[in-house]
Amino acid sequence: MDKVKVHITNRQREVKIPTGIRLLIRRCCNAVLRMEDFAGNVEVSVSFLNNAQIRELNRDHRGKDIPTDVLSFPMGENGVYDINMETGASVLGDIVISVEKAVEQAELYGHTLQREIGFLTVHSMLHLLGYDHEEGGLAAALMREKEEEVLERLGLTRDVSYTPPRAHS
Questions:
Q1: Over the stretch 80-126, which tens digit does the pLDDT of each residue have?
Q2: Distance (Å, rounded) from C-alpha 83 to C-alpha 78?
Q3: Does residue 132 contact residue 82 with C-beta atoms inside 8 Å?
C-alpha cells in the first residue's frame, strides 16, 4: 500500500461530528488496507448522512425502505478496481454512514460513538475489498474476525474509546 486518500464529506446536520472522527476514519481505512496487504495508491469516499438520506439510498439500491447504519458501494470486483486517470489510484468505492443511526447503536451497545463509527468504517472497507456476510456461515465469521482484529489493532475494543496518538516530546 502506497498512498491512501480518504475523501470525507458531512452531508447531514443532525449530529455534530466529534473532533477526531475524521482522523479515526482515515486510520481505520489504512489499517484494513495494511491488514489485507493492499498494494498501490487508493482512494475511498466516506460521507456522513442522516437517517432520511440513508433510508432513500437503502430503498433505491437494496430495495429496503428503512434507515440503516452504513452502506458500501464498491467500485471494483474480484480485486479489479476503477482507476482515477488523474492520480493512477485504485478507486475502492464509497462508504455512507448514518451518524444518527451510529449514535443510536453506540447507546444500544453501550460503547462510544468513536467505536461505532470505527466499526462501521472497518466493516464497509472490508465490503469494498470484496468481503460479504450476507450469506452467513464461514464468510460472515471471517469478516467478523477481520473486523475485530483491525479494531483491536487500533485500540477500539468493545469497552475502550478512541484517543488520537500523542506526539512524542
A1: 999 999 999 999 999 999 999 999 999 999 999 999 999 999 999 99
A2: 14
A3: no
Kindly state the DSSP code that residue 153 receives in the 8-state scheme: H
pLDDT in tens, 34-55: 999 999 999 999 999 999 999 9
- Phi, psi angle pair for 81, to nearest 5°: -115, 155
Q: How far apart are CA 92 and CA 72, in angstroms?
A: 10
pTM comes to 0.90
Give yes or no for a contact between 155 and 101, defined as CB atoms under 8 angstroms apart. no
* 4-153: CATH class: alpha beta
C-alpha cell at 11: 452531508
Tell me the one-letter amino acid at 34: R
For residues 53 and 59, is the Cβ–Cβ distance under 8 A?
no
27's enclosing H/E stretch is helix 21-35
Residue with cell 468481503: 131
Cα–Cα dist 43/73, whole Å: 13
- Which amino acid, 57? L
